[in-house]
Each structure stands twice: as structure tokens, then as C-alpha cells.
Design brief:
Helix content is about 45%, strand content about 15%. By secondary structure, it is α/β, with parallel strands linked by helices. α13 packs across α14. The N and C termini lie far apart (about 65 Å).
């Protein structure tokens, strides 16, 4: 199989490559084509993959890697396209989120006003990609990882029909973390007995069966078990018990909107880049472990954790 990654200069590409070199997916892909509009990022990732290939054990057959800035070249002969692009770059994301935050609205790349703005950047470019797929590889499938994944995938269906699939690790991550906390062993590669309302970032886990018994109510009633994983710490135990389901972590922005906004906006801004005078890719930063700055654009959970901690500290404070 020939796999093309649109956004081939992205930081997740080495993870995909490693998965294709060993384990159950080894040998699945004979050629991996990296496409990106940024030749510098593309060259950096290609060098990383070269180093990973050199570390493979004798007898391993990693996929051949080719990098290109030509979309037509990357698509010709391709069987599957994996798209994870960021139109406008991190500067575009910063603008989308900052405008929303300055208006007192949610500034986040997949939810709220920031998400809608980002969709307006992403959808036209993804439609261009789909049109070029129809021309150069009409039988290929598109796996969309470009945010906001739900809106982007829906916009692609009229062009590609059933050959487009939107994917996201957020919902699956919630399922596995909750299953671990509840002591439920999920079958390898299957989600039998799991119920999830919603799409991608905006969804709720409502059933988690083991041996025909729903284990989720017991988990929602156990404050100690909830404290052991991300989503359980974000939402108050009485809230999830009343809902009868476990919200995806991104729903913190809606259940605790004002606290989330306060947490994001109160974080000190990072220093400007001395070479360009511009700020880094996040809107705000804050001290992380060991005093190192955390880029809020890198992992949204850093924001909600800080906001949650401050909210709980205020509730515990005397007077």
C-alpha cells in the first residue's frame, strides 16, 4: 500500500512511521509519501525518519520514504491519504483563538468561536485536497485528522462520499482511561459494550459493560476512582453522577466556561520571538514543571488543569 501523509512535516509523523515499522502494522505500507507546503519542516521530518530507519533490527522492512512539496506527485498512485494539516500555520491558530478570547468567547481550535474560525481556514484547503484526490487517485481513501475534525469531515462527504473517514484519538482515549479506572478489560482492537454519544471532542461515554454488566454507574459514584484519570479530575463527581455519563475532556469548556476562560486569560503571555517579534504558537503560556513554560497550543489539558486547580483552591480558601 502507498500511504500519503498531507502535513508530512508534522511532529506526529515519526509516531506513524514507527507504528508501520514494527508490530501488527509492519509490512502494511510499502511506500510512505510525505507532502507538505513547508520544505524546511519536511526536510527535518525526513531526517528523523532516516535516523529511525537506521535503528531498525536486521530483517526489518520499513516502508520506503519519499518527501515532496508537489501535491499532484504525492497523490499519484496513492491508496490512502492521511490528512493532518494546519492552514495558516500556528500564527493562524493564534489569531483565531485570540480574537475569540478578546471578545470573552471560547478560544480553542476545535470548539466554540475559535473552532468555527479554524474551520473556515481548514475546510477550503481540505476541499482542494479532496478535489485533487478525485483527479489523481480517485480510488483512494482519506483519513481526516485535520481539526475541527467533525466539521471538516462532514464538508468532505459530498466530494468523496464513503471514502472519507474522520478520526480522533480523544474519544478512544476517554474510553480506555475510564475502562482502566473501572477495572474493565476491553478486547484488543474492539469496543464491544461501549456506548459513546456525540462526535470526536464533543461527546459523552454512557455505557461501559463487562460480562454483560454496565460498570459505568459504579465508576461515576466513586470519587476516588474518578480522581485517577484526566476526565474524572476535570468534572465534579456530583455533576457526572447526575449526568449518568462521563463527558469528553473538551466539554470542560462548556460545563465550566467562565472558569476555563479565566484560567486561559490569566496565564501570563510568553515572550516574543526575538528574531521575528512575534509570539510563539500559543496564545498564553504558564510555568510548567520545573519552571519551564508550557505552550497552551500544544496540549489543551494544561489549560483546563490550571483553571480547575485555581477554581478548587478558591473554593477551599477560608472566608
Amino acid at each position: 500500500m502507498r500511504l500519503m501523509i498531507a502535513g508530512g512535516g508534522g511532529f506526529r509523523v515519526p509516531l506513524v512511521y514507527r507504528a508501520l515499522c514494527a508490530g501488527p502494522y509492519a509490512g502494511l505500507v510499502r511506500e510512505l509519501v510525505l507532502y507538505d507546503v513547508d520544505p524546511g519542516r519536511l526536510a527535518a521530518i525526513e531526517a528523523v525518519l532516516g535516523s529511525l530507519a537506521a535503528l531498525q533490527p536486521p530483517g526489518a522492512a520499513p516502508p520506503a520514504v519519499r518527501a515532496t512539496t508537489s501535491l499532484a506527485e504525492s497523490l499519484t498512485g496513492t491508496d490512502v491519504v492521511f490528512a493532518a494539516i494546519r492552514p495558516g500555520g500556528t500564527a493562524g491558530r493564534t489569531a483565531d483563538e485570540r480574537v475569540a478570547l478578546d471578545l470573552g468567547l471560547l478560544g480553542q481550535e476545535t470548539t466554540g468561536a475559535g473552532g468555527i474560525s479554524y474551520a473556515l481556514r481548514s475546510i477550503p484547503r481540505m476541499l482542494d485536497l479532496a478535489a485533487q484526490m478525485r483527479r489523481h487517485c480517485p480510488d483512494a481513501w482519506l483519513l481526516n485528522f485535520t481539526n475541527p475534525a467533525g466539521m471538516v469531515t462532514e464538508a468532505l462527504v459530498p466530494v468523496l462520499g464513503r471514502k472519507v473517514v474522520g478520526i480522533c484519538d480523544s474519544a478512544g482515549g476517554l474510553v480506555y482511561r475510564a475502562a482502566n479506572a473501572a477495572g474493565v478489560v476491553l478486547p484488543e482492537g474492539r469496543l464491544d459494550g461501549v456506548g459513546y454519544y456525540g462526535l470526536n471532542h464533543l461527546g459523552w461515554l454512557y455505557r461501559l459493560e463487562s460480562g454483560g454488566r454496565d460498570m459505568l454507574p459504579g465508576l461515576l459514584a466513586d470519587a476516588d476512582a474518578l480522581a485517577g484519570f484526566e476526565e474524572g479530575r476535570l468534572f465534579p463527581q456530583p455533576l457526572v453522577a447526575g449526568l449518568g455519563c462521563l463527558p469528553n475532556e473538551y466539554l470542560y469548556y462548556y460545563y465550566e466556561t467562565q472558569h476555563a476562560l479565566a484560567g486561559i486569560r490569566s496565564s501570563p503571555p510568553p515572550a516574543a520571538n526575538p528574531s521575528t517579534g512575534s509570539r510563539p504558537s500559543s496564545i498564553r503560556g504558564s510555568p510548567g514543571r520545573g519552571g519551564r513554560p508550557i505552550c497552551c497550543g500544544t496540549r489543551h489539558a494544561a489549560r483546563v488543569k490550571r483553571a480547575t486547580s485555581r477554581r478548587r483552591a478558591r473554593r477551599r480558601a477560608p472566608g
